Amino acid sequence: MSMPEDFLGRIGYLLSMYGPSFLSGAGRTMLIALVGTLIGCLIGFAVGIVQTIPVSKEDHIGKRILLGIVKLILNIYVEVFRGTPMMAQAMFIYFGASAVFDFNMSTWFAAFFIVSINTGAYMAETVRGGILSIDPGQTEGAKAIGMTHVQTMVNVILPQALRNIMPQIGNNLIINIKDTCVLSVIGVVELFYTTKGVAGALYTYFEAFTIAMVIYFVLTFTCSRILRAWENKLDGPDNYDLATTDTLAHTSGMYSYTAPRKEDE
How far is CA 82 from CA 76, 89, 196, in A? Predict the structure, then answer.
């Protein structure tokens, strides 16, 4: 089968010849983005919680020094990975691990590791901001009933902060779907790497990357719609009925009294 002359015909030809390759590359892209975002969120939550641990002059000096050192290290991590591009981080980590520590990473391990720690740095600031956005009265109330800092975070603050930072979690996932293309510099065979191979084989760069752009758009648009639906579900219903066991009250919370009968008047 010869290459068609028209644009749409060439796209159809590429899909018929390399369709499975495009789908395989898209699957790898989604896998890296999902795993990297999930692990990055866990890292971000851990770092964000540690960064918001309160320290007062009444605390033991050992605790203050230890927390100060830990927070300094975490701040350096956050600033470095937020302040440098992922492509440079991929080259630095993948080739640096081999040159300095004689540790040869597999491309898959490198992909998950790089996306995770990059996402973790951004999520750390998001989580920190989400925690600080909660009314301090919530923390004071939890401490007043005897909750520890960990109990307060797990049971009171984080459930509220999670809803506030959900849009940013979704935004990070969409960014990661697109930014996995930079991992092609270390040989990760994802959608962009696959597209380069298809385009170079037949010199159809315009057509091949048109297909890639459509696939990227479908992936990001689908994820954004799913995450938006999840956000709406977390919001709950617009109106709430008062649940009560009072026999005089309806579920709407309004009391209803039986009108007196005429014979009783």
Answer: 10, 10, 28
- What burial letters (b/e) apply to 183-219, b meaning 16+ CB within 10 Å? bbebebbbbbbbbbebbeeeebeebbbbbbeebbeeb
DSSP secondary structure code for residue 155 in this structure = I
Type and span of the H or E element at 4 = none
Q: Are 130 and 45 in contact (CB under 8 A)?
A: no
> Is 81 in a helix, a strand, or coil?
helix
Angle among Cα 167, 185, 123 to the nearest 5 degrees reads: 20
b (16+ CB within 10 A) / e for 51-78: bbeeeeeeeeeeeeeebeeebeebeebb
Amino acid sitting at position 239:
N
CB within 8 A of 225, min separation 6: which ones?
A: none
Cα separation of 193 and 188, whole Å?
Answer: 7
The structure's pTM equals 0.81
Alpha-carbon distances of 169 from 41, 44, 54, 115, 221, rounded to whole Å? 8, 10, 25, 14, 15
pLDDT of residue 250: 47
**How many CA atoms are closer than 13 Å to the CA of 23, on its beta-carbon side?**
6
**Mean local confidence (pLDDT), 184-188:** 91
The phi and psi torsions of 223 (rounded to 5 degrees) equal: -65, -40
The pLDDT tens digits for 26-53 are 999 999 999 999 999 999 999 988 888 8
